[in-house]
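4.2 Preliminary Data

To establish feasibility before requesting continued support, the project team ran the inverse folding procedure on a target of 163 residues. The structure was first converted into the token representation described in Section 3, and no sequence information of any kind was made available to the design step. The complete token record follows.
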């Protein structure tokens, strides 16, 4: 049975056994957009996660295009914090493939998309987790935790004590 692949505005979408769900941006990316964290292609393990990643990417592209047109930013500008370099003895976070547990997730905080790996602190119904997106679009999730524990994990990730 072929998996259902969502249709997404501005993307060509498909599924294949090697890459999973794939969304390929169909327009030219504006100058500097790749360096600002915009992606030509996003990939995911399921249709819901693909839709979420593609929407986040489209928003990045639209924000970048608008700000570049008005002269508000240049390619050197960053949009978010950068995690500190790893410290000796850091804690390794257990990353797993995203599981579609709900229809919407609120992103409470995020790191800059200009680096190879970006992170988002996500919240749903009193639980939180960290979502990791690799430059190629692969997404992983930390364990879902009570809000206070997840906030501590986020803080450790940002200051280099966890990754």
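Position-by-position output of the design step:
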């Amino acid at each position: 049975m072929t998996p259902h692949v969502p249709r997404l505005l501005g993307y060509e979408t498909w599924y294949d056994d090697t890459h999973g769900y794939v969304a390929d941006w169909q327009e030219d990316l504006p100058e500097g957009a790749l360096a600002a964290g915009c992606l030509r292609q996003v990939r995911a393990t399921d249709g819901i996660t693909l839709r979420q990643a593609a929407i986040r990417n489209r928003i990045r592209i639209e924000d970048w295009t608008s700000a570049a047109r008005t002269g508000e930013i240049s390619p050197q500008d960053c949009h978010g914090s950068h995690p500190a370099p790893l410290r000796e003895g850091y804690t390794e976070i257990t990353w797993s493939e995203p599981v579609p547990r709900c229809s919407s997730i609120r992103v409470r905080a995020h790191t800059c998309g200009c680096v190879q790996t970006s992170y988002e602190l996500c919240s749903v119904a009193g639980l939180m987790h960290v979502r990791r997106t690799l430059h190629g679009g692969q997404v992983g999730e930390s364990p879902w935790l009570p809000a206070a524990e997840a906030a501590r994990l986020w803080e450790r990730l940002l200051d280099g004590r966890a990754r």
